[in-house]
Every structure is written in structure tokens, then in C-alpha cells.
Amino acid sequence: MNSVEIQDIVKTFGSFVAVDHVSLAVAKGEIFGFLGPNGAGKSTTIRVLCGLLTPTSGRASVNGFDVARQPEEIRRTIGYMSQKFSLYDDLTVEENIDFFTGIYGVPREKRAERKRYVLEMANLTERRNALTRTLSGGWKQRLALGCAILHDPPVLFLDEPTSGVDPLARGAFWALIHDLSETGHTIFVSTHYMDEAEYCHRLALMYRGKVIALGTPAELKAGLTAHSLLNLDSSDPLDTMRALEGLAGVLDVAVFGGGLHVTVDDVDATSARVRQRLAAQGIKVRKLEQIEPSMEDVFVALIEAEERKAA
Amino acid sequence: MWERIFVILRKEFIQALREPRMRVLLFVPPILQLIVFGFAVNLDVDHARIAWMDMDRTPQSRSLRDRFTGSGRFDIVSAPGSEEDVQRTLDRGEAEAVVRILPGFARDTARGRETEVQVLIDGTNSNTASLVSSYAASIIAEYSVEVLERQQRIKLLARSPGSPVSMSVPQVTARSRVWFNPDLYSRNYFVPGVIANIIMLVTLMLTALGIVREKEIGTMEQLMVTPVRPMELMLGKTLPFAVVGLLDVVLITVVAFLVFHIPLHGSFLLLLFCAVLYLMTTLGAGLFLSTISHTQQQAMMASFFFSTPAFMLSGFAFPIRNMPVAVQYLTYLNPVRYFIEIVRGIFLKGAGVDVLWPQMAALAAYGIAVVSLSAMRFHKKLD
Ligand SMILES: Nc1ncnc2c1ncn2[C@@H]1O[C@H](COP(=O)(O)OP(=O)(O)OP(=O)(O)O)[C@@H](O)[C@H]1O
Ligand SMILES: [Mg+2]
Questions:
Q1: Looking at domain A2-221, which of 3.40.50.300, 3.90.550.10, 2.60.120.1440, 3.90.650.10 is its CATH number?
Q2: pTM surpassing 0.95?
């Protein structure tokens, strides 16, 4: 049985379609990444799955329970971390844990053990008496994760759990997610950090309410192999973009960090043409090399393809 | 179920006691209101200035005069000799009233004839005027009962700037007021009413704010994704304020008794029980407001929007019988009105369930209605 199944879900707010005919399934124990730019509809989808929003049409089930008809059953078997930090700032670490332990109705004999587990997992044993508001971003998110798994739910919904957390703490957070997955927990996690996509078993890319790509990170990258990617570092990126417009063999140019990523069909022939064109315009090329496409390249390409389709 | 409610209660108390602003909100308004209505808003008329126009000049008229001065209510500030003097005294506000004893007062009373003592009152301040009028009426009534042992007709002339209007004051009215509030102290009237006010302030606004705050910071969304039941959440969020409201009742009663010497004629337990009924309506209203507000600011506005008219139309400060008839009917929709009547009834008249049951029934009906209404609107859904 799949942990999460979504069939043709639509969610509208008035006339605005926030989730547009989304279908997907997540297997037990999977880390499923939900990616997409701001406003793509990630949080809305997650809220539908948690029973917080009623889908306008379509069906979805979590742990075999229907989201529209059995939300209470779902709530007993999931953990949820909302996008906004939502523990009590004015309670201590331990008080927050005790509160949610009681709310989830964790059996009395398991409480001490769950608390110890969560404190250790979040590495907060020493700071158990600290007010939650005094914790830094990374600690807060680990505590929030801890409070969401006190009742040991088989499925976890994490909505951008690492936003606003420094890279080191993000790494530590993903290590926790992997540990949980190894013990059989299903994790449905949204993010807009593309590098985090690599940590997921499978990904869905959401854009304007639609899932525009679905697969493992390798599969999604393989979708781009018809083309190659060049990293171009030049003296003036903007002029470079203009210069490369319409050049034969150049499929796409995107700003990437300080430089440009150029999508081409034939690496050698097009590289030569690019150098030629730029030299003619007096633009210096500091570096031009083929690179492995990153997840971000994949998404940029997919989104641009989507926009071309719409136009 | 109780476990979850207990967990929420414990959390609420930890948060409330940790938050200095909350501590202030819980305890300062009751004390402030007590001070304001106990000391500052003194509507009693002590030492009202009157002018004494004695046209009889007999031992009997002087004896009546002594009763006025001896009461402590009145100071005689002048003795006008003519109608022009009377006019001037009132016009200039030198006195709140003029008492005029007509020639033949002693002779007529001795013969057992109906006699008239005229009291001309400056009606500019209706409250003072009505108090002066009833004090004067009761002094004259006592005099007439005692000395003449015969019914007297008292003629009072309420005088607003303009022509004097003559009216007869039925003695029964004066007596009935004297019965329940013998000293006619407004404090006795106000301080018990403060209970109704404070409970509304503390429970209505704080309940609404407490719940909406959780919506704003996002913890409500987190709670909605737990197995907690709406009823448990509602009870957990309102019971702390019910406890605080009841503590305020005890606090105010003790202060009223010890500091202001206001007697509690009725049963304290009945008062507490009625306070619970009243709390249902205010907490229910707070819950309801929380279901229609998204931000704390909206909740605050909504509570003012609710509590201000509820206060004005409760009879706490402005007597309901002085309101336009249509508005008087409107007050029947106001839970505060019933509780004020109950509180005053218990404190001042020693009234019991036999007398107060209609008000209690009204509060109970109101409470059940508003609590069920908000329970229906209280979902674990965002849409
Ligand atoms: N309750 C609501 N009423 C109206 N519109 C809403 C509501 N909730 C979300 N939306 C809109 O739906 C769209 C999708 O929102 P959603 O929060 O699901 O996006 P997201 O992918 O989570 O984005 P982000 O990365 O910013 O969190 C947005 O345009 C948002 O404005
Ligand atoms: Mg979101």
C-alpha cells in the first residue's frame, strides 16, 4: 500500500486555482521531495493531505484514509510541520514536548522514552529548560520535527522545514530525515532549495498548481541529456546573453550565480560558435566548459518549457 | 479527553504567568474599576447646598429646618427673603434647591390640615436633582409621620430653568428606595455592578484574543493536525478565564465588603453560581468572536464592538427605565443586563432563586445558545 495517494486533486480559492489536477503516489519509507517556486501550491497540497483544506475535487488518501471523509484517522497517523514555525515560543523545550505528548495522547508508559528520544535526536538534552524563543533557527526546526514525531507517526509532512536555516544545520536536518526514512517512515517534504532535491528518493516539481515533472533525481536529469550544458563565465553576462540570442545551436541561456548556463545540442560545434560570436563583440570569455546539469538547471529548463507551452 | 484538556490548561497557565502583560491584564482592571467606581465616581449627594425660605417662622418650621441640617445631606447656605432672591439663588447656582415653608405651616399642621412644603430644585443635573428630591422628600415624610402622625401631601416643584413644575411625590417611592439602599449610596449600587463589567472584560476579550493569537502565530494550524477534539480545545482555552473570572468575583466581593463596607445580603454561593451562568455567555461570545476574526486586532475591535453597547445597555451606569422604550426592549437581548440585576438583587436585596429565576433562566438560555453557535463554527479546518 502506498502511504500517500493523490488522484486528480483540485483546490481552488474563489476563482484562483491553487492546485490544478495533481496526481501522484508516495511509497512507504520514501523521501518524497516537493519542489517549486513561491506560490506553486506546495503548501496547499500538503494542507489538503493533512485534512486542513477540503479538496474542491479529486480524491486523496493518506495511510489508506480518505482526506475528505476520514480526516481524524489521518491526524492520528501523521506528523506535520507547517511552513511557519508553530511551537510555543514562550514555553521551554521540555514544556513544548510535554504539551504535544499530551495532545497526541502518547501512552503513559512510552512518554519518558519518546521524550528522551526526541531530545537526543534534536540534540537538545542540555537545553531542555531553555525558552524556545531563545533557540536559533536550526534548533527550532529540529525541535519542531521532534514534536511532530512524538507519537511515532508512519507518515510525516514537512513543509519547507529548512527555510531560513544555515547550510550546516540544513545538512544535519536532512540526516535526521534519512534516519527516519530508514526506520520505515514516509516523508513528504517540500522545499525550494534545489540542492536539497538530491537528498530525496523521488521528486515532484510543482509549478502554478501543476506537477510538471515527477521522478527520481537521476531520471529528471536524464530527461535533459538530449542537450548539454555549458558553464560560461564572461566579462559581461548581460551583453553576453544578448549576443548569444538566436545563435545557431544555443537552446537556452540562463543566469546562474555570477555566470551563465548555456544549453546546447552539440557541445563542440556550439562552443566554437559561442567563442567566435563573443570575440566579435569584444566580450572576454574567462571560462567555457561542459558541466553536469544540476537540479536547478533541470527545473529552469522544465519551467521554461512549460512557459513556452503556455505562450 | 480530560487529559488533553488538562494539558491545554497547564499550558495556558504557564503562558499567562510567564507573560507580564497578561498578569497586568488579569489583575489591574478589576482593581482599577473598583477604585473608580468605589471612590472616584461619587454620585452621592452629601452637603447639598440649599436655601431656606422660612415664611412661617415658628418653632415647628425651625424643627423641620433642624432635621434638614442634622441629616448631613444638606447645608443651608442662604435665607432668601423674597421671590427675586429665590430666583437669583437658583439662577446663579448658589444652591441646588430652595425649600420654602409657607405662612401658616405650624397652624395648619396643628389643625391637621393638608400642608405644603415647597422644594424648588435646580434640574440641571438630573441625577443630583433626583437625589436631592428624594432626600428632601424622605426628611419631610419622616417629619410628617412623626410630628403629625397623619398623611401629608408634599408638593415638590422640580424647577428647570424656566417655569416651576409642580409634582406630587408618592411617599411609597421614597420609602421603597430607602428600603434597599438606606443611605442611597451610589457606591452600593455601583460596586456590585463592577463584577459584571470585569467578568465581561476579562473573559470576552481575553478568550477571543487567546484563540486568535494562536491562529496568528500558526500554532492553531499545528493543533488542528493533532487528534485534539474541538470541544477539548474550546474547554482548554476558556476554562482558565472562567477560573480567573470567578477569582475576580471573590476578589471584588471581599474588597466590596472590607473596603467599601457594602453588605452582601444574599447568598454568596448563589452569586458564584449565577457568575458561572454569566461566564458561559461571555466566554461563548469570546469564542464566537474568535471564529470570525483572523487577527488579534480584529478580535480586539470585535470585542469592543460587542462590549461597549453591552455595557451601555446593561443598566450599570444608565438606568434602563430612563431609556427610550424601543431601547428598553433591546436590553432584553443583553446578557449583562440580567447579571447586573442578579448581582444587585443578591447584594442589596438578599434576593434568592425564587425571585431571580427569570434572569437566571435567561442567562442559561443565552449561554447555551451562544456556546453551541460557536461550537458549530469551531472547526479543525482552514477553509
Ligand atoms: N486561503 C487561501 N486563500 C486564497 N488564496 C490562497 C490561500 N492559500 C493559498 N493561496 C494562494 O494559493 C497559491 C499557492 O499557495 P501555496 O502556499 O500553496 O504555495 P507554496 O508553493 O507553498 O509557496 P511558498 O513557497 O511561498 O510557500 C498562492 O498564490 C497563494 O496566494
Ligand atoms: Mg508554502
A1: 3.40.50.300
A2: no
